[in-house]
């Protein structure tokens, strides 16, 4: 093929939901999306779901204007120089944390904390510290290296996963974050054993995914803790065997859990994003081998404070980012499991909304009326 016949991507004008300030309603605007630069791909977003992390960032992020969204699926529209893994028309999942395959962490086999494509916090691309979005020449910042609340987005090729065209994009988009995070916390981080007792604080998508993973590992008791008692029936479908509402307790919930479990659970999971609850989860574990895994992103007070005796007695606290999955190396297995009907995804989707109703999706999650809203982007 001659160089003159190679297709050169142009700037695309499309619609995106832009956040202009903390807690302010998103505004659907016409934005310009630059062509992908070396080792980047431009994606036509087909479906994106709303994650609690989007809400947290939107309510307090210091960087605006910004396009949020990170849990998404789409189709590759164009590729940048040097990209050999993807081509136009490929179906992909977006990845909020990438995998370069060459750094110390990626080659260790012990970590998914890529030193090159790890969590992006500055609102710009990893490669050149610039944005690919703009409105009339003014930059619009990225979120979590994805920014899926846009008809088109640009990501580093290490922040996308090619998937089978047979996999339904409106369902597997949930594997971009929440469902995978919960399953991985149960299987990879905690490595739950058969017959064990598990307590889960927070029964959103992540917490219920932990429950699903614990059930598959043969946990004997899976205790769900949440202040919303309306979640009981939904929770049972994912494996929750008992439910505790702290508001209904006459003593601290950790004492209730210890009484229920003869001294504490084998495993506890903090899926709320409350550092105070991390201590509560630790106190709900048993001496000797109790393991607490924290998955939530705190909205305030990011520091954890716990008495040293909790650890001296043998308890362990572990953090979990994306369930410990190496996103490009491991996530294929979850897509395959879903296609074989071995894991539940569809049941997490409580609402399907058009892009124009994205602020309604925010309202539903803030009000605790949904697990996952899948947002259909215009075709």
Automatic annotation (TrEMBL):
Q: Might you give the EC number(s) for this enzyme?
A: 1.1.1.1
Classification via InterPro entries:
ADH-like_C (IPR013149), ADH-like_N (IPR013154), ADH_Zn_CS (IPR002328), ER (IPR020843), GroES-like_sf (IPR011032), NAD(P)-bd_dom_sf (IPR036291)
Q: Which Gene Ontology BP annotations are present?
A: formaldehyde catabolic process
Q: Which GO CC terms are listed, alphabetically? A: cytosol
Q: Which GO terms describe its molecular function?
A: alcohol dehydrogenase (NAD+) activity; S-(hydroxymethyl)glutathione dehydrogenase [NAD(P)+] activity; zinc ion binding
Q: What cofactor is needed?
A: Zn(2+)
Keyword annotations? Metal-binding, NAD, Oxidoreductase, Zinc
Looking at its record, which EC class is this enzyme?
A: oxidoreductase
According to UniProt, the reaction catalysed is:
a primary alcohol + NAD(+) = an aldehyde + NADH + H(+); a secondary alcohol + NAD(+) = a ketone + NADH + H(+)
Entry's SMART domains?
PKS_ER
- Determine the domain of life of the protein's source: Eukaryota
Q: Which family does it belong to?
A: Belongs to the zinc-containing alcohol dehydrogenase family. Class-III subfamily.
Q: What name appears for this protein in its UniProt entry?
A: alcohol dehydrogenase
Q: Which organism is it from?
A: Vitis rotundifolia (Muscadine grape)
């Amino acid at each position: 093929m001659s160089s003159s016949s190679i297709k050169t991507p142009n700037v695309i004008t499309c619609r995106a939901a832009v956040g202009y300030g903390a807690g302010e309603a998103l505004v659907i605007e016409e934005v310009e999306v630059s062509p992908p630069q070396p080792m980047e791909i431009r994606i036509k977003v087909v479906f994106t779901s709303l994650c609690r992390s989007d809400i947290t960032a939107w309510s307090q992020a210091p960087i605006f204007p910004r396009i949020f969204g990170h849990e998404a699926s789409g189709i590759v529209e164009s590729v940048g120089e040097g990209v050999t893994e993807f081509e136009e028309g490929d179906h992909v999942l977006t990845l909020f944390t990438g995998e370069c395959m060459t750094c110390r962490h990626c080659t260790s086999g012990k970590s998914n904390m890529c030193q090159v494509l790890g969590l992006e916090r500055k609102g710009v691309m990893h490669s050149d510290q610039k944005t690919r979005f703009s409105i009339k020449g003014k930059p619009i910042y990225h979120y979590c290296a994805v920014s899926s609340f846009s008809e088109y987005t640009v990501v580093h090729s290490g922040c996308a996963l090619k998937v089978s065209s047979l996999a339904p994009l409106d369902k597997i988009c949930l594997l971009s974050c929440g469902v995978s995070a919960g399953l991985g916390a149960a299987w990879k981080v905690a490595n739950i054993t058969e017959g064990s007792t598990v307590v889960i604080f927070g029964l959103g998508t992540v917490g219920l995914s932990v429950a699903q993973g614990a059930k598959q590992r043969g946990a004997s008791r899976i205790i769900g803790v949440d202040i919303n008692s309306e979640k009981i029936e939904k929770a049972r479908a994912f494996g929750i065997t008992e439910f505790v509402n702290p508001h209904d307790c006459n003593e601290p919930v950790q004492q209730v859990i210890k009484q229920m479990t003869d001294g504490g659970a084998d495993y506890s999971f903090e899926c709320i994003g409350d550092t105070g609850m991390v201590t509560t989860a630790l106190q709900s574990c048993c001496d000797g081998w109790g393991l607490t895994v924290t998955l939530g992103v705190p909205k305030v007070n990011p520091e954890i404070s716990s008495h040293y005796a909790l650890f001296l007695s043998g308890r362990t606290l572990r953090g979990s980012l994306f369930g410990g999955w190496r996103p490009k190396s491991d996530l294929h297995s979850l897509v395959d499991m879903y296609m074989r009907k071995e894991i539940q995804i569809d049941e997490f989707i409580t609402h399907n909304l058009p892009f124009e109703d994205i602020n309604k999706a925010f309202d539903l999650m803030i009000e605790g009326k949904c697990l996952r809203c899948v947002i259909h982007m215009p075709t």
